[in-house]
């Protein structure tokens, strides 16, 4: 009997030995035994002419440098450019990858509390980390840092996604949120905030303070990791160090700096 690779290009999967067929391997031995290509072949279900589903899956992965993170960036139209991939196959692949993202994000959100910038980044990274365009999201929380809602407030292009401060704060008031966390992605992979990012953050902080709403952090995510404006100390305009105090009742993990009252 030939190897799996040799079988992949010459015989339909249904004609393989039962133990070699990805579906039967999954049922008998479990998902962990299957390669990425075999799992993808199960989604494809069928191949194309003299090309089995497994060989087609290997070609798809090869186009993404055999990297699932890269594959997660492709859309239906990009997949359809590959010979043997129609709209139905492309849609199944994109849907499966989106389910994976939502599962990962749901794990964090199911904890109901976001206690620090790292946990916020862990929630947002699977949602925004491999987006090809910028999006701005807001997590709305109550006083105990319990998540009330995650809302996408802006979608933009490759390098910007303007968001309306009024929309952000109106939603906070309607939800009864006492604090919010801002987050957006940088498709370029560069995690450093732009001057526009910093000015926008400070604008939200100032406007929210009038409504007694705390802006706990502004997180920037990419596949490379995350950047926390709160951790880097750039949430507010620079003040004389001697005039700053740390509030003892600040939410855990999100110290809030305010000007001391003379």
Structure description:
- This protein has helices at 4-8, 22-29, 36-44, 53-63, 68-71, 76-79, 87-109, 117-128, 165-175, 195-210, 229-232; strands spanning 135-141, 147-155, 179-185, 214-222, 225-228, 244-246, 257-259.
- By secondary structure, it is α+β, with helices and mostly antiparallel strands.
- The protein has two domains: 4-102, no CATH class; 111-259, Cytidine Deaminase, domain 2 (3-Layer(aba) Sandwich), CATH 3.40.140.10.
- The strands form two sheets. Strands 2-1-3-4-5 form a five-stranded mixed β-sheet, with helices on both faces. A two-stranded antiparallel sheet has the order 6-7.
- Helix 7 (87-109) packs antiparallel against helix 8.
- The radius of gyration is 23 Å and the shape is elongated.
- The protein starts with a helix and ends with a strand.
């Amino acid at each position: 009997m030939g190897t799996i690779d040799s079988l992949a290009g010459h015989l339909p999967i249904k004609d393989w030995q039962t133990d070699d067929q990805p579906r039967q391997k999954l049922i008998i031995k479990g998902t962990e035994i299957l390669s990425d290509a075999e799992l993808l072949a199960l989604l494809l279900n069928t191949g194309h002419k003299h090309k089995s589903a497994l060989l087609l899956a290997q070609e798809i992965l090869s186009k993404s440098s055999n990297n699932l993170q890269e594959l997660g960036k492709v859309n239906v139209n990009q997949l359809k450019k590959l010979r043997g991939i129609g709209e139905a196959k492309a849609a199944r692949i994109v849907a499966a990858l989106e389910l994976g993202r939502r599962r990962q994000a749901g794990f964090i959100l199911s904890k109901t509390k976001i206690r620090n910038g790292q946990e916020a980044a862990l929630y947002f990274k699977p949602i925004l980390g491999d987006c090809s365009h910028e999006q701005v999201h807001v997590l709305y929380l109550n006083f105990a840092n319990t998540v009330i809602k995650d809302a996408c407030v802006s979608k933009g292009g490759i390098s910007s996604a303007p968001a309306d401060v009024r929309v952000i704060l109106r939603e906070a008031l309607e939800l009864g949120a006492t604090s919010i966390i801002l987050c957006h992605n940088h498709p370029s992979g560069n995690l450093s905030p732009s001057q526009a990012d910093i000015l926008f953050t400070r604008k939200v902080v100032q406007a929210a303070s009038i409504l007694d709403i705390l802006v706990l952090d502004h997180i920037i995510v990419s596949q490379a990791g995350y950047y926390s404006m709160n951790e880097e100390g750039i949430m507010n305009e620079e003040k004389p160090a001697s005039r700053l105090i740390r509030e003892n009742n600040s939410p855990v993990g999100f110290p809030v700096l305010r000007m001391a009252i003379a």
